[in-house]
Amino acid sequence: AAGVIQSPRHLIKEKRETATLKCYPIPRHDTVYWYQQGPGQDPQFLISFYEKMQSDKGSIPDRFSAQQFSDYHSELNMSSLELGDSALYFCASSLGQGWSKDTQYFGPGTRLTVL
Amino acid sequence: KQEVTQIPAALSVPEGENLVLNCSFTDSAIYNLQWFRQDPGKGLTSLLLIQSSQREQTSGRLNASLDKSSGRSTLYIAASQPGDSATYLCAVISSNTGKLIFGQGTTLQVKP
Q: What's the rounded Cα separation, in Å, for the pair A64 and A61?
């Protein structure tokens, strides 16, 4: 069965650079979630999209932006990178939102290292 | 604001033991609760999903219970094996947008 695809899997950037993370949800899934997991931390919700519209926003810095495209894939754009942005970034997809009671399926994550 | 707490933070047991991981949440108005497994530096694997109307779910040696009114869930692992060593995360959905609120996890080590 197809799973959530994230690219790249690993990314190394310098401070103040820009990074773009991509997420391809499971086919027919219309909802995408982004989470950030710092070293030794639990995943923190960043932002979500349902049917290509932003549906919820968490503790996402203003330096970050995201969108969901017509084919339902999503991109997380991170600018002016800081050392503290080094983390594992997960994307998850589901069919419908919380009201649908569907499981969220997680991708393998993108490990971002900011030097 | 929903907060999720997991106890204990770490657990070490000999192989073959049955064990219980605990999860508590402050707001009982949830849609569902999920238990995940995470190996070091790896992604999240969903183990069990309990809808708010359900009391428990079982998968193999795993059994998860939910007491929504008291804001508690437990993950029971029977006959633990070294391959069960990982971090176990509990997460709830209490928003209709579906965002997950995670606990800090319990890191389990099963010794041969």
A: 6
pLDDT digits 0-9 by tens, A23-68: 999 999 999 999 999 998 999 999 999 999 999 999 899 999 999 9
Query: In whole angstroms, what is the distance from residue A47 CA to residue A59 CA?
Result: 8
Asked if A24 and A73 touch (Cβ cutoff 8 Å), the reply is yes
Count the Cβ atoms, other than its own, within 10 Å of residue A7. Answer: 13
Residue B95 at interface with chain A, using a CB cutoff of 8 Å: yes
Q: Is B56 exposed, middle or buried (0-12, 13-18, 19+ CB in 10 A)?
A: middle
Chain B residues whose CB is inside 8 A of the A56 CB are 95, 97-99
Q: Do B31 and A98 touch (CB under 8 A)?
A: yes
What pLDDT, on a 0 to 100 scale, did the predictor assign at position A90?
A: 96
CA distance A72 to chain B (A): 17
Tell me whether the omega of the peptide bond preceding residue B82 falls within 30 degrees of 0, making it cis. no
Please count the residues of chain A. Answer: 115
| Chain A contact set for B42 (CB, 8 A) | 108-109
Q: Is the dihedral of CA B18, B23, B29, B30 positive or negative?
A: negative
A44–B contact, CB cutoff 8 A: yes
Residue B81 φ then ψ, to 5°: -130, 155
